[in-house]
Specification:
CATH superfamily of the domain at 4-305: Cupredoxins -  blue copper proteins
Radius of gyration: 28 Å
Number of strands: 26
Number of helices: 3
Shape: globular
Helix content: under 10%
CATH architecture of the domain at 4-305: Sandwich
Distance between the termini: 73 Å
Length: 466
Amino acid sequence: MVSRRNFIRGAGAVLAAGAVSRVALAAVPEAATQTSAKTQPPLVPQTGRPYNAVVTLNGWTLPWRMKNGIKEFHLVAEPVVREIAPGMKAHLWGYNGQSPGPTIEVVEGDRVRLFVTNRLPEHTTIHWHGQRLPNGMDGVGGLTQPQIPAGKTYVYEFVAKRPGTFMYHPHADEMVQMGMGMMGFWVTHPRDPKLMRADRDFVFLLSNYDIEPGSYTPKVSTMLDFNLFTFNSRVFPGIDPMVCRQGDRVRIRIGNLTMTSHPIHLHGHEFEVAGTDGGWVPKSARWPEVTTNVAVGQMRAIEFDATDPGDWALHCHKAHHVMNAMGHDVPTMIGVDQRGVADKISKLIPDYMVMGSAGMADMGEMEMPLPDNTLPMMTGQGPFGAVEMGGMFTVVKVRKDQKPGDYRDPGWYQHPAGTVAYEWKGTLPEPPRSKSAGGQSMPAAQGTKNAEVRVRKPGNGHGGHR
């Protein structure tokens, strides 16, 4: 097991070995960093063309500087410590202190210059997923450029030619580097800030990890059996809500860099699929959904009017993707009487608890002893008790009195009287049962009679008895 102290000490050695001198970086913009896992306010542009800033769920937007009309950014690829949720941290690789890295926001037509400093223990590159750019800026190590060695800074420069929703990630040792969390979001806004305007514009990436309970570093060779499915490298209840004002036009942009597809489902509102990797869908061609499947390497932008106040769930609809680390290897024990065995085990292990005899809901409520640095399968408390979720789950909070531009959590929704499901305490009628429904067209046989079987003898063409 790698301890936090040893990890930081090792990371420090990497940083020292890969440090770029102040003289060499004199012409490079300062590399901003962020370690907080809280959703940061939108970065309103102070220079360059105006745009309507996005909000990165549990993340932030990378600042830039303008130099001779060029928008300059500085990305640093480096080891990071990411809090997956309170009670668990992961040793990942990312950019500028976080995984995923910061969101990059530009405007259609901007000339962009990106300095990329490599503070990893191996070489890397950055591929600008979905962008139209010169071939030599595409970021495929060995094919379109040399790899960026540890300790070196490379420069990418191109024009952001089309508005849309994109990603960035390495095209070098991808199994390891993407498996360790190296990815980030890119938004190119339209020239006209009134075009495609939304009142609230949220972005986040889907990622997955295989981190054994008690350990800190993902297994980068895992292909299928991941145990943590995340929104921006966070799992519920560590994922912030998306706060909206009633009547807002809301856009949610989702990018998928996991190993599987994710059907993302919104409660309480239908939405339009408004954008894909290829660009914006014309309004005449949009289609209504309450669930959209985001396949591997894809982007989806969904839009809806936040008409109905409440706390509306947003989550992946694959059931094991809304559970945390300990859920995948637990056998189904429904209907198994464990009382006798539990009594014997409890004498040896005082903290032992019977689980799953009547389903798994009890695990969302019990305070169970856990290994170090892991999370319960299901957790989170709502206004009515345990939410019994984990992984890719959060809440869209729609409020009538939320002020424009205010993203602060308003707390739990206060339901008007008579609008919450309640217990029926009256009598129930006996359900009617049909005597003719089903199973009558082909009744079961009432018994069998002995039957004589004739077998043709081979060769003579005549039947005989056997």
